[in-house]
């Protein structure tokens, strides 16, 4: 029975569990950086959403890395295409992001939130591959766009969100 359980729940083959855990944690933290800004801006997809998207993307990446190290039958061929992972995560996050976009007449809301969700997915992919530095740089740039740029652009807008007459 012990052998069956051990065979069913094999340890990671390409990395230590602590490495995978740190990658997921970094994705969670960097997703929180982006999501926290969205939360402070009272946007529908906030802290938890961005954290989960980023960590899920990192987990998919870790899983894909593990799949490339699985032992296949001698006759079976294992095709490794990392671009499929990126396409799958991008498509999934795009589905969620599209749901955050609301149109009412000529007004469109939620595009920036959708874009930040897409960024959280990319940050998670980067964390999952072990490129935490690139993920942190992207999160910093994303935070700059979301918060610093708002302080420059929004003061120039009138209360209804349109540009005042010059």
Concise account of the structure shown:
By secondary structure, this protein is mainly alpha-helical.
The biggest beta sheet is recorded as: 2 strands, antiparallel
Which strand order does the major sheet show?
A: 1-2
Number of helices: 6
pLDDT under 50 segments (min length 5)?
A: none
How are helices and strands ordered from N to C?
HHHHEEHH
Q: Helix share of residues?
A: 55-70%
Structural class: mainly alpha
Alpha-carbon distance between the two ends: 78 Å
Let me know the number of strands: 2
**What proportion of the residues form beta strands (DSSP E)?**
under 5%
Basic shape: elongated
**How many structural domains?**
1
Q: Assembly type of the shown chains?
A: single chain
Cα Rg: 20 Å
Average per-residue pLDDT, rounded, comes to 81
């Amino acid at each position: 029975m012990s052998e069956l359980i051990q065979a069913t729940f094999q340890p990671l083959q390409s990395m230590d569990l602590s490495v995978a855990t740190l990658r997921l944690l970094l994705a969670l933290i960097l997703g929180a950086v982006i999501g926290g800004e969205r939360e402070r801006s009272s946007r529908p997809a906030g802290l938890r959403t961005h954290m989960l998207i980023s960590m899920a993307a990192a987990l998919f990446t870790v899983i894909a890395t593990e799949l490339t190290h699985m032992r296949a039958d001698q006759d079976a061929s294992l095709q490794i295409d990392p671009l499929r992972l990126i396409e799958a995560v991008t498509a999934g996050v795009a589905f969620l992001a599209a749901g955050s976009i609301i149109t009412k007449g000529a007004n469109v809301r939620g595009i920036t939130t959708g874009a930040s969700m897409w960024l959280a997915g990319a940050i998670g992919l980067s964390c999952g591959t072990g490129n935490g530095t690139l993920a942190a740089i992207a999160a910093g740039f994303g935070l700059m766009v979301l918060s610093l740029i708002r302080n420059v652009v929004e003061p120039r807008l009138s209360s209804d969100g349109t540009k005042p007459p010059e």
